[in-house]
Amino acid sequence: MTRRIAFFRNTRGQALVEFVVAVPTMVLIFLFSQFFYEAIQVKLKTQEMARYMAWEFTGRALHDYDDGSFKYSDVSTEIKTDAANRFSNLRSTDLRNDADMALAGKWTVNTPTTQNGAEPLLPGGTLFSIGGFPIDINMVFRFAGYVLDGLRLLSIAKHPNVYWAAMAAYYTIQENTMFGGGALSRFNPPSGWKLNTRGYIRTQVRVTFENMWLNNIMAISGDKFWSKDNQGKSEMRSSIRRLRFTETYYLLADQWELHQPDDVVGPSSSGTAYYKQINRMAFMDNSMRRVLKGFTDAVKYGTDIVAYMAFQPTLGMSDLTQVGLVSKNYEGGSGGRESGQIEIDEDSGKKTYDTSPMMDKSTSNVGVKMYEESRSTRGNNYMACPQVESLGCTSSLSQDNPFGDYIIPEELE
Amino acid sequence: MTRTMKHLIENKKGQAFPLAAIGVFIMALSVIATMNLGQAIHEKIKLQGAADAASYSLASMEARAFNFVAMLNRTMVVNYNTAMAVQSYYNYAGFCLFLLGSVRDLLACMVSSLDFGCTFIKLPPWLNAAYCILKAIFTAVNQIVSAILRVVDYLVNKLPVLGLHSISAGVADALGLMNKYMLWQMQLIRLALVNAHILSGMHQVVSDNYIHPQTGESKWRFELTPWMFLNMALNTLEYRAAFDRGAGVNASAFDLLLLGWRDYGDFGKRQTDASKDAVRIMSEIANATRSHAAIYNRKRGLFASWIVSNIFGDKMGATKLIPTGSDSKPNPDVRKIRSAENYELGDVLASDDYLTRGWGIATVGISVVFAQSSTIKGIAHAITAYGEDSTDNNRKHYGYKNNNGDPAHPKGGYSGLIVIPPMRKSAKKSIQKEVDCSLMEKHKWIGISPYFKFMPIADHNSDYGQPSTWIFLNMPPEKFQTGTGVAGRPWHKKFTFNHGGGDKFSQDNLGTGQAGEHGGHSADLDTTIGGERNSMSLFGMHLEGLNVISRGMVYYHRQGNWGEPPNFFNPFWRAKLAPVGAKLAQWLDNLTRGIVKPGSADESTSQTVVRVVLNLFRNFLGDVFFGFITSVMTH
């Protein structure tokens, strides 16, 4: 007992004991701090990679109007390759092959995945109940579709026209085939129009982050030191030895962009993508168009016969159902309106007309200036700014100046 | 006691222990704080990413819808083009009918005058024989022409089902109905679907971005929070402002659900007035339907048209827009139609035939014919700007009917015809007009279908009317500070220090500790991020947790041509993310328009001060305010 008291009162070696206790604790805290810091960094970079890939899809054309083909597969391959190059070691600016580790951890980027889904859906769930029968939003829209079907069929009675009755009947019978048959497919364009109804991009990146020193710690301390899970394995070892980060990002890309801005001036521009797209959409589908063309041909050839009998020349249109798409570029600012006009050979000679449907000079009923004013106001710079982008879309030093626009009077600039 | 206290104070044994304990505790807190901060940063980025994805996706949905509307508007125009071409052809057939009728009339005059020389005047036999032979020849030709005329008339007007009139009227009407009940309906439901997504706050995108990779379940639930109402209201207002109600209904939910079909009624009503709006809408369609391939002029042919035009003047015609006249007299005023100056705008898409007024002389033997062309009223079909309404009275299908009430083209006919020697009564009778110009009530054209039109604003500060999409999201602390279905992550610690109570120190996972529950005073040390303690309240909305704002924008850009105004007739709409602060600065610019004017050399000091202060505030809004909103407030 006396010796034991003497032992506790003996201060010799105290520093060594404190050192032995404190240093491993400090080392552990440091190592864990470093480990968690690196883990957070890797997790953020994983998140960045998934986000980067998803947003890359917004800058690529996923659909080609020229032939109606879809480009998702090619674009996905390009983006995966690009992302693999940029994020192979999760260090965008470090291109070394062996830069996939730090002090506490080592990481491995698994091959990312992408998906091209259908457009986002509306939130499900019951909106209200009718007699205990739950009604959700999809049912509401489906019902609205039936109402529209009903209105169309009622229109036959209101407008007794055999041609329209045939068209409406064909449309109703072929509706499922045209639109794909899904309950809400009618909210998308008919498949024959070859418009992209997908583009809801999902990117997913998985990264494995492995602790490089945990095995050594475990070897030193022994398994008994750590608590066990219900399978007899070390909980800490299984939970932090190898972390798996999975980051997913969703967004709707591809805005059905028409990348060809060419002037279109009727059938002579039939090679342009814009013309081809409208040609696919004209008269709903090819079957209806062929039947319709039979009747317009009857008018055409009947009129030609009449013209021959009256010793008159024929009018000369090759096809009365041809696509009459005319869309020329309008330039902004003053003096650009003529760019969007075409000349028509009329009885009274050649006359010039705007090709844009909306180039009137009137104002709407709410007094807002309309298209012509808008055209003359817009500039030819980014986002139609009157000035180049670097000046912030104003006419002076602009936002670069803390005191705002026009601090230097325009006359003195 | 004093000695004991003094001993304790002076005793240095064990002093390192509390220091080490405090030091280790602080270090542990640092580790915990690092992890919490790291997780909060991750969650903030994730939330901002979800908001960006939602605002961009909503802008994409709108851009898709606008492009879809533009393509369908063009498709409707294709239908109108075909209706117009059919109209041109049918009318041209009527024009040919008119030429044949005119030749028949002329031949009848000749036969009449030759009959005078052959029958009523005593002439030398050889001359009398010549008159009689000529009369026989002209009579025979006249009978041939009359026979052809009857065939052509039958083919053009009287043949049921397969006649030119039946087919052209039926096809043109059907195309108008197709535009309304197929294409326009497709526009409507697509735009309504987008509005439903607006009302959902683009929930699906936000929710999907919070899907757990293992369980597949999203921790984001659809809730009607104040932020959600803000999203609904702002985006609906932006969306609604994009539509020009003058061209049909507004597709926003506000109009469809709250105002019902009032806009549609307005559209119909506006169409019944020969107002500027109706003319404007028709002119828009006309601009879209003008094509080099359409029929705009009639070339002179041989024989009949050569004779007619050289005797009586040019026979002209076209298919184009013409004005209807007035409300009180909705019949097309042919005198106006004849004036080429009235062709450019109008609310009736029609074909017309007219003769330029003139005199001509034809001589055959001693017969001399002086003829003045009358005003030939040759409208066949017409597509009016009138909207459909319940009474069907406003949709007129202009044209002519003959004495039997059937559709007819005028088969010749001249108001002034002088024949020397005078023609007989029978000849006069034969060339009487057989037509009566009036409305053909049996043939009503459905009119121009409603279509969706963009409402541009000629102002850069208003983004030219291009709508923005706003997404405000809030994630309360309990959603990102706890794991799924467990009490909390081990590093989410809340420490409560009590003084003077039973327990000196307690710690628990979030939400389970009660400050001061053990008596005395207490102080909390919460290592988590985004709690109520440092959140703001804005208009009654508690903003604890993380808050993010994102703005998307739908914009129109024809590649290489920024100047072209945004519209719903070309599919050049795209989506982008847009700066939030810049929009605030734009709003301020609009509010202060007229107050802040460009500086000038003679600007007064007070004006300069006002301008500088406003500009400072403007830059504050743009640069500082949203830094504050997204950083300080959401911490």
What does this structure look like?
- With 413 residues, chain A is α+β, with helices and mostly antiparallel strands.
- Chain A folds into 4 domains: 2-107 and 204-244, no CATH class; 126-187; 273-359, no CATH class; 382-412, no CATH class.
- Chain A contains 10 helices and 12 strands.
- In chain A, the strands form 5 sheets. In chain A, strands 3, 4, 7 and 8 form a 4-stranded antiparallel β-sheet that branches. A two-stranded antiparallel sheet of chain A has the order 1-2.
- In chain B, the strands form 6 sheets. A 3-stranded antiparallel β-sheet of chain B has the order 1-2-5.
In short:
Chain A has 413 residues and is of the alpha+beta class. Chain A has helices at residues 2-9, 14-57, 72-87, 137-158, 162-179, 214-221, 235-240, 273-281, 286-309, 371-377, and strands at 63-64, 69-70, 105-109, 113-117, 126-130, 133-136, 200-211, 242-252, 264-265, 326-327, 341-346, 349-354. Chain A has ten helices and twelve strands.
Gyration radius of chain B (Cα, Å) is 42 Å
Oligomer: heterodimer
> What portion of the residues of chain B fall into strands of 2 or more residues?
5-15%
The general outline of chain A is: elongated
**Radius of gyration of chain A over alpha carbons?**
36 Å
Supply the helix-strand structural class of chain B: alpha+beta
Structural class of chain A: alpha+beta
Alpha-carbon distance between the two ends of chain A: 97 Å
Overall strand count of chain B: 16
**Weakly predicted, low-confidence segments of chain A:** 362-369, 391-413
Major sheet size, sense and barrel closure of chain A = 4 strands, antiparallel
